[in-house]
Design a protein that fits this description.
The chain starts with a strand and ends in a 7-residue tail after the last helix. It is built from two helices and six strands; from the N terminus they run ββββαββα. Strand 5 and strand 6 form a beta hairpin. The model has no long low-confidence stretch (mean pLDDT 86). The chain has a domain of 44 residues. It is an alpha+beta fold and 74 residues long. 30% of the residues lie in helices and 22% in strands. The strands form two sheets. A four-stranded antiparallel sheet has the order 2-1-5-6, with no helix packed on it. It has a two-stranded antiparallel ribbon with strand order 3-4.
Length: 74
C-alpha cells in the first residue's frame, strides 16, 4: 500500500469477492487522513489508485462509532 509516495508494508487478508483488509496502525491512519492518493497492488494484481477525498471524515466517523459502542447519536 502506498499513500502518496510513502509505502507501508503490511499483512493483508484476502476475502471473497476480491476484498482485502489490514489492521489500521496509528501510522497508517495518519497517512490516510493526510494523504491525497492511495495505491495498492495485492497478490500480484495490477496497481490500482484511489483519491482519498473524504477519508478523514470517514475515519473520524468510524472512531466515533467505536467510541460509542456502535450507537449513533445523530
Amino acid at each position: 500500500m502506498i499513500v502518496d509516495a510513502t509505502e507501508t508494508p503490511g499483512d493483508y487478508q484476502i476475502h471473497r469477492g476480491g476484498w482485502a483488509s489490514t489492521a489500521l496502525s496509528a501510522e497508517l491512519r495518519d497517512q490516510l487522513m493526510a494523504g491525497n492518493y492511495i495505491t495498492t497492488a495485492i497478490d500480484g494484481d495490477d496497481e490500482r489508485q484511489w483519491i482519498l477525498n473524504g477519508s478523514t471524515a470517514a475515519l473520524e466517523t468510524l472512531e466515533e462509532c467505536y467510541a460509542q459502542n456502535g450507537i449513533a447519536w445523530r
